[in-house]
Design a protein that fits this description.
The protein is α/β, with parallel strands linked by helices. It has 2 domains: about 150 residues, no CATH class; about 120 residues. The protein has 11 helices and 9 strands. The strands form 3 sheets. A 4-stranded mixed sheet has the order 6-7-8-9. A 3-stranded antiparallel sheet has the order 3-4-5, with helices on one face. α1 crosses α6, α2 runs antiparallel to α7 and α10 packs across α11. InterPro entries: DUF6310 (IPR046277).
Amino acid sequence: MGLRAYAALLLLLSACAAPTPRPKAPVIRNPRLANLQRAAALPWKDEGRCVVQEASHPWPVLVDRCFHSLDHEKVRFRDPTGRCAVASAGAAAVGIGVCILAAPEIVVGAVILTGAVVIAVAIQEALDAHELSGVRPEDGRPVLPTETSAAALSKRSPKPKPSGQNWPPVPPAPVERERSPKCTPQRVPHLGGDELHNTCADRVPQNSFPGWDVLVNGKHFDALQLRARVLWEVKTDNFDTYSIYLQRTVPEQQVPELRRERDLARACGFDFRVGVRSAAHKAALELADPDLDGVIIVMDWC
């Protein structure tokens, strides 16, 4: 929207604001994190990319710029107070929806989900990045009006239920279980200067830190899929060109180190995967150690 449209939006928000005093909300020290958590409860057609791009702006600006990316088949708006309808008299329904959604606090029942909502991929990845950067939930969790108590949330089935539910609570930020500080992933520069190796590592699907290694339990791992909690090691051997002797001896030399890396990852609660460039290399490693079956992955991206 242009500057004039944004000015009109601010007028709508003024009209939407409730005249009665609201309970004092907790101080939000990280508006970007608060916006991401608030948006995580909504369905997005673009996997949340617009939200992530605009999350540093005030919430009304984010709504203004990303409202078109909402999955409108899974969400509808009610105006129980009538204030947004009055403020936007003669405007299209989209104007009322923006007014309701951009209000400082959402009135219970004003936003209704008509289908199951899973946190958008881009938003989840941004929340994961905040978690690793040391931002804690108390630094930025907004409070949205909901009739669901925290106790009830802890007992709720993990599968969301569709149809007519009121505005859902903000999904809780992931909570790391207590563990040694050495198990907290740390972003560190790539070791060495092997461009092919680094490229293959950076392109691991859903890699949380492309361009970096990840230090966990004293080991530089090549990649981390934080959402799945999987640490990766990448092998870029051109295995198919090796002599028969090398095809036998190289896997035997690599297996002990892969076992050690797997144990380091598991000790910190992570799963472990090894990426190789050849199906023959995969088969040779699994033959050398059958326990690696399911751990070795042929990298079709490298």
